[in-house]
Here is the input.
Amino acid sequence: MRSRLKAITVAITTSLIVVSVVPEKPLMAQDGRQGRRTFEVDQRELIGPNLTESGMRRVIERYQADRGSLLRFYTVESSPVRRERLIRFYGGWLETLRQIDFDSLRQEEQIDYLLFRNQLEHEMRELGLRAAALAEITPLVPFADVITGLETSRRRMEKVDPARIAAALNTLGKTIANIRRSIEAGLQPAAKVREGAAQAKPAQSVQAITVKRTEAVRAAALTSSLQRTLKAWFGFYNGYDPLFTWWVEEPYKVVDQALQGYAVFLNEKIVGVKADDKNAIVGDPIGREALLSELQYEMISYTPEELLAIAEKEFAWCETEMKKASRELGYGDDWKKALEYVKTLHVEPGRQTEVVRMLAEEALAFLDQHDLVTVPQLARDTWRMEMLSPQQQLVSPFFLGGEFIQVSYPTNTMSHEAKLMSMRGNNTHFSRATVQHELFPGHGLQQFMSARYRPYRSLFGTPFWTEGWALYWEFLLWDMKFPKTPEDRIGFLFWRSHRCARIIFSLGFHLEKMTPQECIDLLVNRVGHEPDNAAAEVRRSFAGNYGPLYQSAYMLGGLQFYSLHRELVDSGKMTNRDFHDAILKENRMPVEMVRAILTKQKLTRDFKPSWKFYGQGPFNR
Here is the structure.
């Protein structure tokens, strides 16, 4: 091992020497600290003691590889065979963890152990919750097992019997037609159903079924997924096996059309969404039990109701600060008028990219001036910009970030009203908060560092770390007077209010206490969103690929980091730069585990989350 490390050391050192004699670009770069200079690459991090990594890394990487193989094989999520196989898989890994001597591990390895166990326990709970959700709609999808069985047989490379399969598909088409008739009967008035039953022949009697909207949402989504599964299954054999095509082609077409028609029927007649409605917002509330499971996974020691109370307290703080800024602008306590004025302070079409570049450079200069965090020179040199298409802006009406910042602003193909809303929603003062959130020190710096430090921990990624970090900087920059003018403060407060609203409407929706339209109204009336932008935000939250706690994670994760900053930086135990650099070098994880690392907390095998990060000290609003 020592000889291997020595070889790596020599190789890295040699490569650095070779680079240093090529004067094309210096290895040294200004970092903004009173002319002090730093290496673009810190050799100590490459050839020093940090080469010693967590022994849990190999365990976690092996798990990720094995899990990837399973998920690529068992692609039908509703398949009971898939569920049973994953239960065995996760259970086996939990048993492996139980055999590890926890107390003999270094702290970084204990952290990985606890993160890994939390991941496995969450996966097991999710399998149970998904099975329960599927069981609720099983009567609405009586054809599911047949289709998943066909795909499972294909994956196992079992011999096909075309004649038997054709008969099964023929029966399947009738099953879909029968369940649809039963639901249609349930939609009719009771008297009409009795009349129809009296007139029908005994063999044609229909049992009426009443379906809730949430059940229809889930059943329609599953039906569409099964239609895609069946299409892929048919495409595997079709044409290659002439006998298969001769028997199966026609009954397959009947079933394919029946599945498509059934999904459209559920969406249009029960969910209330037309097939061609691209702007519809359809979500599937998961309920309180599933929310509690998600909170346990994210290591958030609060109930949904307690989080809603936190959001309301933060909302009240934002409104008080909004009124202060409004008075400075001459609008008294009518902060909505002040907000409307700020929305008019946008640039003309074609100039938004100039604004983004200026704001990015402004944020970097502020970070350097106050020695807040290390932004490597390579990260500064390689960030870039792209424009969001009109279609993308339907779900992302504002910026998106990372290594490149994606800019939302009107294009020539938008309607006149959409153009105005986009410019108003992306005015210069709103953008001052979003550019640093999406780029530096927010997501752009996060992604750069996560790719270079403990990348195996990507498995434990959480929006409470990802989005919480970016929002935390809005808190810190506010405290440091980064938004100097009342217009800038209104811009910051708009987004802060928006994140409070996200907690309220996302948890309210999943607790089945708010409809999508009520969520939109909340954003318009209490935050001051443009109507189309509010609709896009809600659509993104419920129709996109976001977890049920994702929208809550912005504010709550930000409050976690903010509380930790008070605990470690304000107390003088760490500098700003050391605090922020340490967080970025540990990669993504629940913020309570970040706290355990930075405070060198004594950990035990049976560790349970317990951190109450709100309601004490600085948060007693």
Residues 481 and 612 are 28 Å apart (CA to CA). The radius of gyration is 28 Å. The longest helix spans residues 107-137. The beta strands are 28-30, 37-39, 384-387, 404-407.
